[in-house]
Every structure is written in C-alpha cells, then in structure tokens.
Amino acid sequence: MNKFLPLLFPVLLISQEKLETQIIDFNKTGNGYPHAITETNNQKYILANLQDSIPLIFKFSETDQKLNYVYDVNGYNLFRSKKLYPLKEKIIFQNETYPYSLNSFDGNKITYLEYNFSSKSLHNFIQNDNGYFFLNKDSYYKNKLFFTDGNKMNELSFNEYYYTDLQLHFASTQELIYSAKTNDTVILNTYNIDTKKSKQIAKQFVRGNFKKSVEYFNNKLLFALKENDDNYVYQQTNSNSISKLNLLVNKNDSLLDTIPVKVKGDFNGFKFNNNLFFSGNIQNDYTKLYKLDANNKLDIFAELHYNNSYYSVDDRSKYFLKDNKIFFTAYKNLEDKIGSLWVTEGEIGTTKLIKGDFNLPLDNFFIVNNHLYYQDKTALFKLNLSNLNLVKLTNAFSEVTYSYLLNNTIYFSATEAIHGNELYTLNTLNDEVNFFKEFNYKENTAVRQLLQSKDGIYFISDNALHLYNDTGFEKVSESSPLLITSFYKNPENYKEVAEFKDKLLFISLDNQLISFNKSNKTITNLGYINYEGNEYNFNKSFLQVNDKLYFIGLNSSNSRVLKMTDGTLDGTFTIEESNSHNYSPNHLTYNKNTDRVYFTGTNKLGKTTIYSTKGVKNDFIEEYNSNESDVKIVGTYKDYIVVNIYESLVGYNLYLFKDKQLTYKLPLDFRNHYISSFYNDDKKMYFLYNNRLSESDGTDIGTKEIFQSNFERLFNLHKCGNSFYFEDENRRQIFRSTNYKTQLLKKLDVDHKVISNVCHNNIMFYTNTDNRDLTTYIQKKDYLIASTDQSYLDLEINHILKNDNNYTFTTITEIAAFNNKILLKYNASFVNDQSLFLGDLTNFSLDTNDINNGILKSTKIQVYPNPSKNFINIKVDNNKTIQKTTLYNTIGLKILTQQFPGNVIDISQLSKGIYFIQIETDEIIETKKIIKN
C-alpha cells in the first residue's frame, strides 16, 4: 500500500524547493512475535514483540484488525512486559524497562500502581474476585505480600521471616493459601486476609517448583503429603484439621474398608459439574481416574488404559469443557512427552480414548460445532468427534507458538516463510486460515539491501526479492528461506553485487551467495562465503569479470579458498583443488591486458605471495613471493598490477608489478600509512592514503599530490562527474576535489556520520546516520546531501513522523537511483520501521547554467536574534510571503500555529529551552532551531 508522505508529519523538507516524494509501505513483514491475547469485559489486548524484540501491548479490534499501542502521552514511556493479567475492565502488567513499575490500563488511561520494583522481580500472580496477590523476588521485599485492585497497591507481610521460597497457590475473598520452606521442610499455610495472620496446615507436603500442587474444592484444600516415600492425598476440613482422603471399598457383604489414595507426585486435578477429577491409586494398584463429588464421596471413575499402558492426569494435562463432556489429556509416565486425548460424558458416563498416537505434544485444543481443534508444535488439526476423522488444517508453519479461541475464531501465532512469527486466524465456520496482522510497528516493512542494477533497483522485503524500475514496483521472486536473514546493521558491508546478463548475484545477511535468475525468476544458493571486506571497499573479496564472479569461499575444511561461479551450481567451483596449505586469498584484481585475476595469499612460511588465475580449475600460478607479510594488491593500471607493500625497514611503499617483478616504485610519501582507496582510468591513478589525495601516471614527473588535509586519514574515494569525493576516517567530513581544487563540502556533528552514497546523472548524493539525546529528545538534522562539480545543497529531512499514539524518529540508511527516481531507505530508530522514500528527480538540478529550472532557484530564510528572549524576526529572500509558521517543542508537539503571521513571532510567553519553527512560503517549507533565553 502506497502512502503519500504529506499525510505524515512533517513533509520531506528541502531548503530550496519541494521535492515530489512518496513513502512506500510493504505490509506483512514477519519480524514481530505476538505472544498472547487476553480480554477484559469490554476490551481485548495483544502482547507482541516487534522486530527489535521490545514486547509491547496493543489494544485489539477483531473487526478491522486495528492495533492501538498502549502508551503514556505524558511520560513517553515504552512498556516492556512478559504477561498480561486481566482484571474486570482492566489489565495489569509489569513494565520491565526503566522506570520499572506495576501498571493498570483501562483502555484509555494508565495508572502507575508502584514505581519502586526492580526489573522482572514480580511473580506468582494469584487472582481472587477483587484483584491480584503477588510476590517480589527482590531480597529487600523478602516475605512481603502485595495486593492490587487495579487502582492502588497494598503491601502485606507474612511475618515469618525464617521462611524462604514463598509460593502462592489460591486466594478467596477471605483466605490466601501459600507454601514456604524452612530448614528444608516444605510447609503449607493459610493466610487470613482480614486479620493478616497465618496458620500452618501441613509440613513436608509434596510440591514442585512453582507448580500448582494445591486444589481448592468444595471449601476444602487437597494436596499431597509425603510419608515413607509415598505421596498420600490429604484434605483440610472446615475445622482446619487435615486427614487422608480415603476410598471406601467392600471388605465383605457387611463391612466397608477405608483405603488411603496415593498419587505419583504433586496433586493435580480438574473440575467439572461440581466434581473434582484426579489420577491416583490404592495399595500400589494401577493408576486410575478418581472422582470426588460435592458430598465428599470418592469413587473410581475410569481406567485410562490404552495400548497395554495406564495413563494419568498430571501438571501437564489440559482440559476443555463442552456440552456436558470433558476432554482432557493424560500421560503414560514422566518420560511421555506426547500424551493422549480422552473424553468423559456426564457424571456417570463412559470415559474413552479419542486419540493416543499424536506425533508431537498436544499443546492446546478447543471444541467448536462437534469438532475438536487442537494445536501441536507445528500445525492446527480438526477432529470430527462423531467419526474421529482427522484433518490437518495448516501445512506452511514450522512452529505454532500459541492459540486462543474467540467468538468461533481461533487466533494463533506461528512461524511461516512469508511472514515470520505473526498472528493468524482460523475461521471454524469454513476452516479458512488467514494472515491477521503483522507486528511491525506502523505497518511498515523491513526493507533489506538496496541493490543497484542496470534493470532498476532490487531490494529484499517480505523475505522476497522486489524490483523497482520504470514500470514501478514488482515482486520478482516468491518467498524463499534463502532470503531470511539476520538483523540488518551495516548496509555498506553488503553492497557487493555482481550482475550478469541473465543473473543477479548478491550476499544474504547470513553470509550466503545468492543467485537470482532474471529469466525464470528462480533463486539458487551457491554456498557460504567468507567476507572480510571493510566498509571502505578496499580489501575486496568479490570480483566480477564479464559473466563470472570470483569470490572467497570455504572448502570442506572451512578454509578460505578462491572460488568462481557463473551463477549456477554446476558452474561454481574452487579454482585450486589440490593446494595443501591454507593460502587465504584476498585483494582480488583483474588485469584485462593479461586476462588474469591476481590476488594475494599466504605461503607455507607465512609470507605473502601474489597468485594469478584465468578462472579454470587448477590454473593457479605463483607470480611473486615477496618475503613480506603485509602485501596488498591495490588495483590495476594499464599493463601493471599496483601493489602496496610494508617493508620492514622503510614502511609502506607503492610498486608497479609486471612479468612477475616489481618494476617501478612510485615516489609517494606514505609516512607509515597504507593505500586506503584507489581509482584508475586509462590515463591516471588516484590514491587516498594518510591524509592525502594524490595522482600518478606511472612516472616520477606525473606523480603529484592533489590535496593534503589537516584532518584525520582519508577514505572512500568516488568519482562523480568531473569531481572526486572522499571522507575522513570517522565519516563525518565530506570532501570534493575538482580540477585540483579541494574543499570541505560538509562537516557533520559528532552525532552523525555518512552511511550511504550514490552518483546519479553526475550528481553525488550522500545520506547520514542520526542520533538523539535520549534524555531531552532533542531533534537532530538528517540530511540528504547533493553535490555537482560546482554546486552543493543540503536537503534537510525533518525526521519526526507522527502517528496516532507516538512520535518516531527516522534515519535515512541507504540510497539508490534509477532513471531520475531516487530511493531512500529509512529506519525508525525506536522500533526499526524500515520502508522507502521514492523521490522524483525529473526537475531536480544543481547545474548553475540551468538556474531557472533547477533547485537552486533560491529562497533563503533567516531567523534572528537567536537565542532570543522576547521576539524572533524572520527574513525571507526574494520578497516571498510567509504563509504560515508553526512552533514545535523538542519531542515534536505543536506549540503554536499562525496563518499569514508576518515577519515577527512573539516567544515571550514560552519557557526557556530549544524549539523548532517551521516556516512555509508559497515555494518552500523550512525548519529552523531557535533557543528561548
């Protein structure tokens, strides 16, 4: 879905003339991870991770799929939670990022219940009719009990400070049941909520760590107590005494015998129609299913017997009630990871096995319209309860993480090749499975690499390959696991791409070489590469020669070797199969005069050797053994190979290499620095090294210095038009050198650095990264920098985008151009939204000879005095009329708007601080920073 940028706040700002720009959105990204759905009386909520793994809470609408982020407009807090607790018309959640707090949300307003808890410390939430009881893991709060009704917090205390390992089990309006440990003895206690006093119920009762081991049924507590290695079931009566739960059996015609019931471990059961069901045994008999009714009568209800084994209910068991039937899972033993599914009808009906041969554990199930829908780890199934016909409803998922039934629709989270971990729906009326909602904030996509091509601009989105060209946007390949990549951090490290007539080769972010066939639109994985190139593109590990690509790959021993490919599996091979030593190739360079590829490698003595090949198996020639360990092939010039060598006595020197000999040493003063960037044509070579730019035609007379800076070392040499462009080592300064005149084109502040560039129609474009002060949220300028041989311009992108709930900061991270269209990939730093700006450069010009049609049709705006205490004056060149001024604070909130305001703005009533004034004339919109004293 395409959205026009003017719909967002604010528009793309250009300091000269408006540039026609669109924002391109690609839905269904697949980088989110919904965890759970919960609902209150009038509102539903989803807890989901976004692609940067921040768990956020959204209000949820079933009908229009709209997600509203739970936010605090005053505190600007981001809430990180692991679980939601529904309470009447509210949800309770813990914020696990600073400031750590417990909060309630009623759908409109957040209430901060407590600020002082440490991160991830709250646990063991137990609900009664009025709210939640919970504990705190922090040692400072040892043995303290907390309660909240969603409006305020209450702090209670158990007063038994010798207890450890507290665990809550049950809460009524009068009592709280909890367990604790003292001197390695597990104790079960009751806590009176009104009197705030505890009373011991039992010692050494069996309980697992944080497992439900106590049942509250018919005003009685039931639990397991260990005696002589047997776990007996006990119950607490109204008189607060405890006794074993006994089964009455006929001893003879006139006598009954009472036999205590035992369980294998903890006591676990489920309730149905005023009955409690659990698994147990007497006198070491086989485990059976027992029923305890409301009159405290205990009976053997059923034998769970299948395939010569007896099954029992334990803490892993799940159950579902439907139409006077109870469906439940049971397990053969603790080693049984799969389980079986059973059904019992009514209070005296039969119990029978539904299914006992699952392939994977049965995680969840629902009964809808006489069908049982259940989830295992990879799929959803439907079981007809009349004829037990089983149908698998989903096939595309590698993992199903949870499911939730809501109004005859099953919502489930799953991992699938197209969308990743996202939310899907299963309509039980027609069994249709549909993608419901992506969890990439603001519905944007994660656009991956921008690959410049003669056909257009390729990029990866939705884990598929797309192409932008003269006809627009097109998905050119369907989804493929080969395109599922790791987190995208350094775009400059993945710019290497080879393009043949019928193929495009690029590097996936998990370090595989991918071949895309343009004709049949198929994708082939050519294997792992070993990429050690740096962001300045000097130590090249990839080299295209016509329709062949040389690259550094791995052999069967995971050693670095030189490989060649024509883009097919059959045409991909290692150049030198028999070399016994690990030569670790690097610095690939092609010399068209000799038709050979040259590269460096390490010989058996640890010294650097120059090798060459024609791209045929076992054509592997040792050209020159330098006896030095640091040798770099810089490039080629005419018949020569240009070699940078560090010589132990004199430091770095630059040589021309030919016919297996170093034939000439160039007179360049390296001062112990190496060549950092290189450019050549048929006439001259150009070098960046140390803090200098030099040129050479291969002779002493023709070798000279063009520029020497007083800054740091220089890197990243590019030619665009008749100018050379390069940067300092920290990528904060951009230089332009034209006709031997060099100037500092742009100096970025310490919060920015150059990250991407492209030359289009003899115009050089740069983008820069952006940071902001996380304390003050001060806005930083984000630039698209444009330059020709004579002109230079900042295209300032005001990078605060407004949505319904929040302000998001963006950074332009990549740039590509094709036929007067420019693509800018932006990244919203808070949640990694990644989408595309599409700019039309048809009327864009920096040519001073075409000033009437170009963007240099100048209107300049000045604001003064700045700083100011009372008034700000606005001066606009060319006598342009100011249409509107808008004042914003540092987080983007609108403070003041004036239509046709004149040239003076009164700021006397504003508080001291930094503001931004947006000034709009009939031609431009420009934003200036002002300071109020």
TrEMBL record:
A Pfam family hit: Por_Secre_tail
Residues of the Secretion system C-terminal sorting domain: 863-931
Keywords for the protein's UniProt record, in alphabetical order: Signal
Keyword Signal: yes
Name assigned to this protein: Por secretion system C-terminal sorting domain-containing protein
Organism: Algoriella xinjiangensis
